[in-house]
Design goal:
It is a single chain. This protein is about 45% helix and about 10% strand. The protein is of the alpha/beta class. A five-stranded parallel beta sheet has the order 2-3-4-1-5, sandwiched between helices. The radius of gyration is 21 Å and the shape is globular. The termini are far apart.
């Protein structure tokens, strides 16, 4: 199976802010870590290679349950081992605009105390570097940080390697599908890609270039539905303009 990412995402950092251009990143984060295990296997020792949680915003006057929930997940992932070694992933999108609040700082302090055993992956939705700068400034006293931009749906070569890694197909077979997916914004979601790959694998006992080409151009499948999903809205807008005239 092809390896679509061959570098150490963290290198010398404790934590990485991952910018992908995607609103939903949980599945991508988990698949990213599965690939990372092949690059740095010594970093992992647990029931699950990643513990992932959406850290919901909690106002200062409310009880903060986020860390207790995270600690419970990590305990489950540790199993019978002395400690958990792996990735702790946190979706921090709820905390934009609240970067200086105490609960967020407490979270960074908690991660700081375990930085020798865990690597941290912060996902921030489809935010860009300028938007997460204040959050990075808050985290910087506690963690050695890096920021990675990994735009799966803007890089045809990267997406092709990702598809090959997920499907076990040759890269040459996946390239036309990668091109089509990039041109279909409604398909820019890892869960949908998984469904599309499942659809394609169901079309033939052995998938080849012809199978993929036929799927790309066939009407009625998931990819074609996603490709056409913007058309009703476009027609509606046209209809409204005609009524105004």
């Amino acid at each position: 199976m092809a390896t679509w990412m061959s570098c150490d995402l963290w290198e010398n950092a404790d934590a990485v802010f991952l910018i992908t251009g995607m609103e939903e990143n949980e599945r991508f984060a988990k698949e990213l870590v599965q690939t990372q295990m092949k690059v740095t296997p010594e970093r992992f020792d647990g029931v699950f290679p990643i513990v992932y949680q959406k850290m919901l915003y909690t106002a200062p006057f409310e009880k903060f349950h986020g860390l207790r929930q995270l600690a419970s997940q990590i305990r489950d992932a540790t199993g019978l081992r002395a400690c958990y070694c792996g990735i702790v992933g946190l979706d921090l999108t709820d905390w934009f605009g609240h970067e200086q609040e105490e609960y967020l700082k407490i979270t960074f302090k908690f991660l700081h105390d375990h930085r020798q055993m865990w690597k941290i992956l912060f996902t921030v939705g489809d935010a860009d570097v300028s938007k997460i700068r204040r959050m990075m400034i808050t985290a910087a006293p506690y963690l050695r940080l890096d920021c990675r931009e990994l735009y799966l749906f803007r890089d045809q070569e990267l997406l092709g390697k990702y598809l090959a890694g997920q499907s076990g197909l040759a890269l040459s077979i996946c390239k036309p599908l990668a091109e089509k997916l990039i041109a279909t914004p409604a398909a820019h979601n890892c869960a949908l890609i998984g469904q599309i790959l499942t659809d394609i694998s169901a079309k033939a006992d052995k998938v080849n270039s012809t199978t993929v080409r036929n799927y790309i151009h066939a009407p009625g499948n998931l990819l074609s539905i996603l490709e056409d999903s913007a058309l009703p809205a476009a027609r509606s807008c046209t209809h409204e303009k005609e009524k105004e005239v």
